Amino acid sequence: MTSTPTPPAPLRLPPDLRLTPEQFERVCAENREAVLELAADGGLITMTPASSETSSRNSALLYQLERFARSSGGWKVFESSAGFRLPDGSVRSPDASLLRLERWQALSPADRRSFAPLCPDLVVELASPIEEGPRGVSALRHKMAAYQANGARLGWLLLPHERAVEVWGPAHQEARNQEAS
Hints:
Layout: H1 21-30, E1 36-38, E2 44-46, H2 52-72, E3 75-79, E4 84-85, E5 91-92, E6 96-100, H3 101-105, H4 109-113, E7 122-126, H5 134-149, E8 154-159, E9 164-168, H6 170-180
Parallel strand pairs: 7-8
Antiparallel strand pairs: 1-2, 3-6, 4-5, 6-7, 8-9
């Protein structure tokens, strides 16, 4: 007689729960089916799986980034399940990212097996149909600004429904700094 595996219990956490990056890593290890990120204040950010269409677009994007990395050399490509521990203490997962190979090689083996303690050089966020409304795009822009504040040299926010790309680079950071003054 074979037994049917028991499905994992749903992850239920209090909304005011705050975790350190180390605690977050343990929660992720125990809940591999959950799609989570950690905010700079230690709060959990729950995410939904990508739609089929978005996943296909992300695959095409990764293919192009991998082609670039192989042809130019000196780059490491990451897909959406890679978590990065940013300088502000958050752990975020861009839909796609590139990291200079020397930065990757400078990490210890333990840091490579964990959430790498750095911000990628290029971060890409691909808006899904759920995120294409004003609140979703605003949240993605906030995430792009956080990447930039944590050291991303370049960011692309892809908005397929609008057939638009927002490029987040040094000029974008300068404009944000002027707005804050």
